[in-house]
From TrEMBL:
<dbReference type="InterPro" id="IPR027417">
    <property type="entry name" value="P-loop_NTPase"/>
</dbReference>
<comment type="similarity">
    <text>Belongs to the AAA ATPase family.</text>
</comment>
<dbReference type="GO" id="GO:0051013">
    <property type="term" value="P:microtubule severing"/>
</dbReference>
<keyword id="KW-0547">Nucleotide-binding</keyword>
<keyword id="KW-0067">ATP-binding</keyword>
<protein>
    <recommendedName>
        <fullName>AAA ATPase AAA+ lid domain-containing protein</fullName>
    </recommendedName>
</protein>
<feature type="domain" description="Spastin/Vps4 C-terminal">
    <location>
        <begin position="76"/>
        <end position="112"/>
    </location>
</feature>
<dbReference type="GO" id="GO:0005524">
    <property type="term" value="F:ATP binding"/>
</dbReference>
<feature type="domain" description="AAA ATPase AAA+ lid">
    <location>
        <begin position="26"/>
        <end position="68"/>
    </location>
</feature>
<dbReference type="InterPro" id="IPR015415">
    <property type="entry name" value="Spast_Vps4_C"/>
</dbReference>
<dbReference type="Pfam" id="PF17862">
    <property type="entry name" value="AAA_lid_3"/>
</dbReference>
<dbReference type="InterPro" id="IPR041569">
    <property type="entry name" value="AAA_lid_3"/>
</dbReference>
<dbReference type="GO" id="GO:0016887">
    <property type="term" value="F:ATP hydrolysis activity"/>
</dbReference>
<dbReference type="InterPro" id="IPR050304">
    <property type="entry name" value="MT-severing_AAA_ATPase"/>
</dbReference>
<dbReference type="Pfam" id="PF09336">
    <property type="entry name" value="Vps4_C"/>
</dbReference>
<dbReference type="GO" id="GO:0015630">
    <property type="term" value="C:microtubule cytoskeleton"/>
</dbReference>
């Protein structure tokens, strides 16, 4: 499999996970997909979920539950930024090691279908 194919696949998975998420104009899904090299599909889903919550977490930090409830929806429905993705990636580790990937690729070459 080519590296470009893998980046495109990760980008498509990002776009699928983010279809209902408001993105800031600075978000470059191709760049984020390249940063996710070695992440599993589940890992990528977790990164998207975490990134999507970051702007809201920043907005409600330090507020009481009552203050949070009184916020207009527009104040918590903020776009996800490129920095949100970078922070989420740094926070979310890969669940599959490089060694596991090598074992899987070897197994697929020996026993997998073509």
């Amino acid at each position: 499999m080519s590296y470009g194919f893998l980046v495109d696949s990760r980008k498509q998975l990002l776009q699928l996970n983010l279809r209902d998420v408001k993105l800031a104009e600075d978000v470059d899904c191709s760049y984020v997909a390249r940063l996710l090299d070695g992440y599993s599909g589940a890992d990528i889903t977790n990164v998207c979920r975490d990134a999507a919550m970051m702007s809201m977490r920043r907005r409600i930090a330090g507020l009481t539950p009552e203050e949070i409830r009184s916020l207009p929806k527009e104040e918590v429905d903020l776009p996800v930024t490129q920095q949100d993705f970078i922070e989420a990636i740094n926070k979310t580790g890969k669940s599959v090691s490089k060694q596991d990937l090598v074992k899987y690729e070897k197994w697929m070459r020996e026993f997998g279908s073509t």
